[in-house]
Design a protein that fits this description.
Blueprint lengths: L2 H21 L2 E2 L3 E2 L4 E11 L17 H6 L1 E9 L2 E8 L11 E5 L7 E3 L6
């Protein structure tokens, strides 16, 4: 194997390793990227009927009448593949988030999987 080919293979292996390492992110040691957790920002908080903005990804559409009446919801924004996206989610019971707070959200869940970012980072 010639030197040029060896360097190319080494670069390819390094690139693949870097890509796999990026997918192995675990936020604060307990919110794995691979399980759908993402960094987000709270844009709006309120009762299901009080939120002034909506989203294509809206957990209110699958909530029961009781959940809509009793739970607090939040509009979150996050970046996905360099695009700003939003999602409306139910907040965990007893949670006290404020507008502008940095959180982690499990994107495919409507079960209140939202947690504050302790080591808040951009």
């Amino acid at each position: 194997m010639n030197t040029q080919r060896r360097r190319a293979m080494g670069a390819a292996v390094g690139l693949i390793g870097a890509m796999l390492a990026g997918c192995a992110t675990v936020y604060e040691g307990k919110y794995p990227f691979s399980e759908g957790w993402r960094k987000a920002r709270v844009e709006e908080i309120g009762a299901a009927s009080a939120l002034t903005q909506s989203s294509l990804n809206d957990c209110r559409s699958s909530a029961t009448a009781e959940q809509l009446a009793t739970r607090t919801y939040a509009l979150l924004s996050y970046v996905d593949f360099n695009h700003r996206r939003t999602r409306v989610v139910a907040l965990p019971p007893g949670a006290s988030f404020k507008t502008g707070a940095l959180v982690y959200v499990k994107l495919r869940s409507c079960a209140g999987d939202v947690a504050p970012q302790i080591a808040a980072a951009p």
